[in-house]
Amino acid sequence: MIYPFSAIVGQQDMTNALLIAAIEPALGGVLAFGDRGTGKSTAIRALAALLPTMRAVAGCRYRCDPADRKRLCTDCQARLTQGKLPVTRIAAPVVDLPLGATEDRVIGALDLERALADGSKHFEPGLLAGANRGFLYIDEINLLEDHLVDLLLDVAASGENVVEREGLSLRHPARFVLIGSGNPEEGELRPQLLDRFGLCVEVRTPTDIEQRLEVVRRRDAFEHNPVAFARRFAEAERVVRARIKRGRALLPKVDVPESILRRATTLCIALGTDGLRGELTLTRAARAKAALDGVDCVTEAHLREIAPAALRHRLRRDPLDESLASTRVLRAMDEVFAPAREAA
Amino acid sequence: MKTPSPLALLAVDPHGLGGLLLRGSSSLGCEAVFDQIRAMLPADAPWRRLPVSITDDRLLGGLDLAMSLQSGRRIHAPGVLAQADGGAIILPMAENLPADRVAKLLGEFDRGTSRFAIIACDQSHDDTSPLSAGLADRLAFWLDLSDDLTGCSSSRPRIAAARSRLPDVMIDAALLDQLTVTALALGIASLRAPILAARVARALAALAARGTVSAADAQRAAQLVLAPRATRLPATDPQPAPPPEPQQAGPEPANSRDDQPPNDQSAPQPSSSKPLEELILEAAIAAIPTDLLARLAAKATLPARQGGGAASGQFMGTRGRPVGVRPGKPRTGVRLAVLDTLRAAAPWQSLRRRNDPDARPGPIVRVSDFRIRKFKEPTRSVAIVTVDASGSSALNRLAEAKGAVQLLLAECYVRRDQIALIAFRNRAAEILLPPTSALARARRSLAGLPGGGATPLAAGIDAARQMALAERRRGKRPMIVLLTDGGANIDREGRQGRKQAMDDALAAASACATDRLTALVIDTAPRPSALAADLAGRLHARHFPLPFAHSGALSEIIRAEQRAS
Ligand SMILES: [Zn+2]
User: Fold this and answer.
1) Chain-chain contact of A322 with B59 (C-beta, under 8 angstroms)
2) Does 3.40.640.10 match the CATH number of domain B381-564?
3) Interface residue of B131, B343, B433, B443 to substitute, partner A, most A CBs within 10 Å
4) Average pLDDT of B107-133?
5) What is the nearest CA distance from A169 to chain B, expressed in angstroms?
6) Span B457-462, average pLDDT
7) Could you say which of A83, B174, B328, B388 is the most buried, measured as most Cβ atoms within 10 Å of its Cβ?
């Protein structure tokens, strides 16, 4: 049994970021950093159960989208020339990448069994193929070996896994939302990798007694009778699933007014974030937040809500600066937004 | 009636309670506890030891070479963790298990496809090699070998009966809430603690053949699970204090807890005169070991440490990245790349079969197919910064030394090196920070470093040496950075006296040199001192007088030394 997403107490930053990533996969994924035992893994697994089903080519190892002709895998392209593609509905995959995974298992490798049986060369897909059109989750990403993290971020950015090894030469679609989690007290993520994630949320153990009581009560109720617990949250789960569906449908129609774009630019300049990536992510995330809220126009409120998650990991880091990145974002927001509010 | 021992409770719900952390240096003592637990688990429950050197494919499973070759199919051999389903994983020297393997172990534990208890022995004598905090957090029981573990053990049939009863045991909402409140009052940040306490309370009820958790069960659970995790004591004020900020062990006045009741074995009986929450809290406080009280009192004078408890700090993986596969024969230190070998052999199978029709079934592998995998060991260095914080050198130099260490921190952050911090003053050396790459913690420790007092130089060098040796055992490259003016007036026994103190310091330095530890001495005396130069000589270390070495230069020196070592 999986703990229901809507039963997670507090942790709004994290659950919002995950929902936004579910609505806008092009955002670059989510990095959830913080205390241990705060239910980071629980939230990801819970999200998996909520994702709407999707149309896919029946029998395709990469779950190609029949409507997206440009991104079909080579198998599907070949089948298409012979006629129509058979379609089926499947659950969106959420793939766990364990820390011990070898490069073989991640990228895929020569199918040993068939190679030994008849000497034929076939590709055995790896975890990247398994995550296509879904989520790839790595717990303790700060402990993952650097070259694997590099590889994952490259594939996540390009949407394609290029395999050149063991006499194999092929490519297949690998578009997935990368979700990483970890505890910075146990070692920080390489600074170069941080800003390649779309959103970054800090997850803290709640200090509020009411929240803590509710966390323990629900965890206990779930463990004691998971079926009854699931029933209790069935309606809430349905609502969240509907929000994701509606948000996805709405996203292409969400308008970003000129004034908001300008505000985003000002904020990024005030914070001195490098390059355009921060600005782009900020506006995209604000759009997705608007879609999640069911409105078709981005407001300043959306921007404010999402700015810490979109920018905190892009600040040029002074390791001796005591103030937390989040605080710096909030401070800059106050400066950038305050005059406008006074004028209004 | 005697209450059941934690070991019996663990046997009732091995995976739910996570397991047991056992502190103490006696291997025999650990073995005795193992035997007790094993005698209560089902006779066929798996029992697997995890050596520190375990490889990933044995831990998590991998290709079974012999079987695969024989059958010509890929045959998967389950790892030790999968084999432990329904039983226990034993970590005899848990403090030495590398961080990447701890993370993999915990990953499997959380995923729960294989359900096992973890029994971890922590035999470290001091803070030099702290146990993974994530591991400790998941284990319900933190025991010391010196604890009285003779509480009722139970027969296998009784344990089995309790197990079958466990899913139906109810816990009253108020009791559950009280466990949560108590955990917070004791400064326990992790929410796993009250959840584990609730499960322990359930196991207690199940063992007593009751269908509902009683107040006494909850009290006992608080004693067992919450008391050892306490990082602070609530105010003794009868009014319930506002929930304390759990992230920091608060700097309460130390003497407010000196008059706590002594370690009382008998669980207080629920009485109607006191509210429930006080009873549970009192029970927990009564079970807090007296040395923990002393530690808590001492902590109040130190900078707050994140996480609290005994275990904090963890290390990055050290397994190294594979730098490619190439033809060659496996030998010590070079592993056969099985899959790659088979892949190399695959294209030739039909040809070889034709040439050798009598070969046994399965793939025909020739020596020329052998592929080996080389690993590039990451050269992760640990700078063990050992600072004289005593009155003699501290007064004018401590601020400068702090500045230098700050710069070193920034350097380490970029290079992903680790840093540890030891300070010595008054009678002893103190580890302010075990090796870490978490910058925030290093910064906090440094900021709170006090100065003044006598100069126990030998103790400082000894502490640095011990840590350096422990780090080397873990495959890292330690370097001792000693900031001192070379003066000493406290000897190894903690006695005053210049002559003996200097002799001891030089002896400690010689010991480092004998162990071939890399070191360098930053001379903090107002003028380059003969004492510090002498010390550097004994250490086989370079000697850098600080007066003209501004912080930037110092960091440059350390980097050069790291490259050279
Ligand atoms: Zn396809």
Assistant:
1) no
2) no
3) B343
4) 81
5) 15
6) 94
7) B388
Q: Is A120 within a domain? A: yes
Label residue A286 exposed, middle or buried (CB < 10 Å: 0-12, 13-18, 19+): buried
Q: Name the A residues in 309-338 with CB < 8 Å from any B CB.
A: 319-320, 322
Question: Does the beta-carbon distance from B195 to A216 stay under 8 Å?
Answer: yes
Task: Measure the CA angle with vertex A263, ends A258 and A269; round to 5°.
Answer: 130
- The verdict on residue A313 lying in a domain is yes
Question: Is residue A94 within 8 Å of residue A45, measured between CB atoms?
Answer: yes
B370 Cα distance to chain centroid: 39
Query: Each residue of A181-200: pLDDT tens digit?
Result: 887 766 667 766 777 889 99
Say how many CA atoms lie within 13 Å of A240 toward its Cβ: 22
End position of a domain, from candidates A205, A221, A237: A221
Question: pLDDT for B21-34, tens place per residue?
Answer: 998 877 788 888 89
Residue A209: its chain B contacts at CB < 8 A? 180-181, 184, 243
* Residue of chain B minimizing CA distance to A145: B321
Q: Is the pLDDT of residue A66 over 70?
A: yes
Which CATH code of 3.40.50.300, 1.10.260.40, 1.10.8.60, 3.60.10.10 fits the domain covering B6-153? 3.40.50.300
Name chain B contacts of A146, Cβ cutoff 8 Å.
321
Cβ within 8 Å, pair B343-A35: no
Q: If DSSP codes are grouped into helix, strand and coil, which group holds residue B265?
A: coil
Residue A80 located in a structural domain: no
Q: Which two tokens stand for residue A199?
A: 């959103």
- Residue A320 lies inside a defined structural domain of this protein: yes
Q: Are A36 and A207 in contact (CB under 8 A)?
A: no
Q: What is the 3-state secondary structure (H, E, C) of B371-400?
A: EEEEEECCCCEEEEEEEECCHHHHHHHHHH
Per-residue confidence band for B299, with pLDDT thresholds at 50, 70 and 90: very low
Q: Report how far ligand 1's centroid is from the alpha carbon of A73 (Å).
A: 4
Domain count, chain A: 2
> Quick one: pLDDT at residue B58?
83
For the sheet with A199-203, list strands across it. Answer: A94-96, A134-138, A176-182, A30-34, A199-203
Q: How far apart are the first and last CA of chain B?
A: 63
Question: What's domain B169-231+276-303's architecture?
Answer: Orthogonal Bundle (1.10)
Q: How far is B438 from chain A (nearest CA, A)?
A: 5
Task: Identify whether residues A37 and A146 lie together within a single domain.
Answer: yes
pLDDT value of residue B310: 27
Contact A36 B312 (CB under 8 A): no
Contact A71, A172 (CB under 8 A): no
Residue of chain B whose alpha carbon sits nearest to that of A218: B195
Annotated catalytic residues of A are 277
Give yes or no: residues A126 and A198 share one domain.
Answer: yes
Q: Is A164 on the interface with B (CB under 8 A)?
A: no
| Cα–Cα nearest to A129, from A75, A172, A96 | A172
| Pairing state between β A54-57 and A87-90 | antiparallel
Domain residues for A333? 251-343
- How many CB atoms neighbour CB A321 within 10 A? 12
Nearest-Cα distance to chain A for B460, in Å, is 26
Domain boundaries, chain B: 6-153, 169-231+276-303, 314-378, 381-564
Enter the ipTM.
Answer: 0.85
How many beta-carbon pairs below 8 A join chains A and B? Answer: 163
With beta carbons under 8 A apart, name residues in chain A contacting B180: 209, 212-213, 216
B219 CB contacts (<8 Å, ≥6 apart)?
B267, B268, B270, B279, B280, B283, B284
- Which residues 195-254 on chain A approach chain B with CB closer than 8 angstroms? 205-209, 212-213, 215-217, 219-220, 223-224
State which residue of chain A sits closest to B407, comparing Cα positions: A320
